[in-house]
Amino acid sequence: MTARVAIVGSCITRDLWPILGEAPADLLYVSRTSLPSLFAAPARGFSASPEPPPPLKRHQHRALVADVSKQALAALVAHRPTHIIFDFIDERFDLWSTGRTLVTHSWELHVSGYLAQPALRGGRPIARLSDACEQLWRDALHELADFLRATPLREAQLILHEARWAEVWVDGESARRPFEDVEIWPGYPTEIEAHNQLLRRYQDAFCAAAPGVARIAAAQHIADPEHRWGLSPFHYTPDYYREIWDQLHGLGI
Questions:
Q1: 170 forms bridges with which residues in the sheet?
Q2: For the chain, how many structural domains are there in total?
Q3: How many CA atoms lie within 13 A of 139 on its CB side?
Q4: pLDDT tens digit sequence for 201-215
Q5: Would the pTM of this model clear 0.90, i.e. be above it?
Q6: How far is C-alpha 206 from the geometric centre of its chain's CA atoms?
């Protein structure tokens, strides 16, 4: 049986295919979202531009519109995946609350101009590292577990790609150097260790809520300045992707 893969996560999983020279087949990619946003109501009155507002690319705009319009869950069920890979690296963004819905306050939303629309205007951020955001995430996790059981997705193999932010990167002389002045986006600083602690809590909670999930992880997380997307704590060296790829092959992908 040919695998039909869905990813609910980030580029760390999606990049496995292009980095390792594979052509993805039957792949659904849901990104730039958060569990609380996935299960929130669509933003009433939201109007998406037919063309990506600068500086967004088409794929960035598609992900943003899917998050605000809440298209991902229906797409996931319609895809009928044999395997669903979750990774939580995109769970680094704040949430944006309008009082009627929640959306992911991604960089794409930040620069899109959509926050000026009546559907989103006047909202407030909920900080990712706050207790309030963590409670919203855990509540949404229970909704996700119920959703998976109540739909054909219950037949899919769930896979958790356990990743964390790299604390070091390798320079041109193969020397490891620590990250300094890390930002969510330019002008929005954050701390690696705080996000890694949050990821550990998210990953443990997910495994408790989803019995039978397969856990995959690499031994080391080292960032690569030659990565196709540039230097970042979650753009890793090629060895990382090969190690994860081998584990996915062992699970039938």
A1: 176
A2: 1
A3: 10
A4: 999 999 999 999 999
A5: yes
A6: 14
